Amino acid sequence: MRTTDDPTAPTPEPAARRRSRYKTRAAIQQLMDEHGSQRRRFCGHTTGGSVQVRHTPGAGGLRGVQRCGSVWLCPTCAATIGQHRADELSKALDTWRADPSHDVVMLTLTMRHHQGHTLAQVRDAYRSAWRAVTSGRAWTRTREAAGVVGYTRSTELTVGANGWHLHAHVLLFLDRPHALTRLAVEAFAMSAFDRWAAKLVAAGLPRPIASSGGLDLRAIREGGADGLATYLVKMAAAADDATGWVEEDSHRLPRAGEPGRTAGQQLATEAVRADLKAGRRENRTMWQVISDYLAHGEVSDRDIWREYEAIIPGTQMLVWSRGLRAAIAALTEDLPAAELTDQQVVDRDREGTTLGMLDATAYGHALRVAPDVIADVVTAAGAATPAEALVGVQAVLARYNERLDAEAAPQYLRLHLDTDPARIHRLDEGFRRLEREHATT
Ligand SMILES: [Zn+2]
């Protein structure tokens, strides 16, 4: 059962992961009927005209396509948004920790539940428990004592044999070195956990047990911030890898039944499991659930996905406590004080070069029948230089067209990159005009 739960298993290369996201999105869209969200159904489709293939060093992109911006339900948008949030969080962590008097500690709060609880019940309990954590005099008092300036909270959802499982990963930004505040931070965490647990009980859920996974507290090791940010945001967002970080000292509260297993080992396994646990039946991410459904067609998996689809989209995946982001943004040029919405992240038009254009009809056909080819176009467009990118994109298209030849598909379905400078210029102008109009409305 746990055959793929092997920490030494190779991480899939980025191109393979992008292909898988594009294919999964197309498959989800085919499952959706006309009552489903139109934005999600047509995510990736053209806005009407031709599609521009764009290049920036190391990143390819498409312009002229719609994006749904759904961080929970769309694998491609989730990856784009997750990457953006992880980059920002990582900059915030680096900026904060550049000051030797500052520190960051991660607090994880989990829930216990029964299979009988609906996702709506679990989500409501999660929300009210978190409100209880962050309100009242005990919060203010312990927070000041521990030097907690602010926090970010990421929400992670999995589903297992015991039903829905939500937990909160909370990064505590401290204005004094953790070595000095260890006891106060522990007191802060215990107090937070008490309010969390009491509220869950009031909501009808079993009381989580601090010493058996309900509460976890750990410091972050030097150099680990980048991977941590990726883990916190992207693990929830997409089945991407999130390796390469370990924590500093096992400052979590004692946990029974784990002889010989350091917190670091445990954490490393936890951090990589998004990739590794495919095929594991317990605690699957929602991307695994939908992939399992697409692969095996089990009705129970479809039902899990439908419930998730109905309940979860209103939840914010990453939350910054009031004032924290602005405080860190004031310390660096790298982090804008204003946070983009999920939709703004996917719609934002990055600086770059247009390599060429694809015909709308041929593009739309490929997106339906061979979404992995479009994924490969984006990957190839992200080569180091525009010249390499162009060669790479042409090669992907040539392979695809050979396939169409073999299938004797109609000529108009062939994908050709139109690199005519005058036409590219005209289309660029059109996009710029649209953006200006968009910006003024
Ligand atoms: Zn989307």
UniProtKB/TrEMBL annotation:
Entries under InterPro entries matching the protein: Rep
Pfam family, one: Rep_1
GO biological process, one term: DNA replication
Region feature Disordered, mapped onto this chain: 1-21
GO molecular function per UniProt: DNA binding
Assigned keywords, A-Z: DNA replication
Domain of life: Bacteria
Annotated family: Belongs to the Gram-positive plasmids replication protein type 1 family.
Protein name per UniProt: Uncharacterized protein
The organism of origin for this protein: Cellulomonas cellasea DSM 20118
